[in-house]
Request: fold
Amino acid sequence: MHPVEILLSQLESHQLQVVLVPLNPQRRGYNDGGCKRVLANQNPKWYRQFCARHPSSRGVRRGKFDTCIKRLNTLRALQQIIAGKPAGKYEAELRRIASTL
Reply:
């Protein structure tokens, strides 16, 4: 399998997913019906680093990182690289990431 195909399959099969879990009623500060957010699945490490290198001009919102990278555009770029077509301004960086696998 080509390294770019590996990147594509990793990005398609992993995505940030957070689920709500009920709070433990034995804990101090428990409120009835309260929940907490728990990470169930996350993006591949290479994609998180790729997004971190391209921050949005809007900056940080509520303490959470914001990026100008869009998942759909990244998927499309990887598909175009595999098809041998030009893949936009991030093509060279995606090829470099693929070469490190």
In short: The longest helix spans residues 71-83. Helices lie at 3-13, 45-52, 71-83, 91-99. The beta strands are 17-22, 35-41. The mean pLDDT is 87.
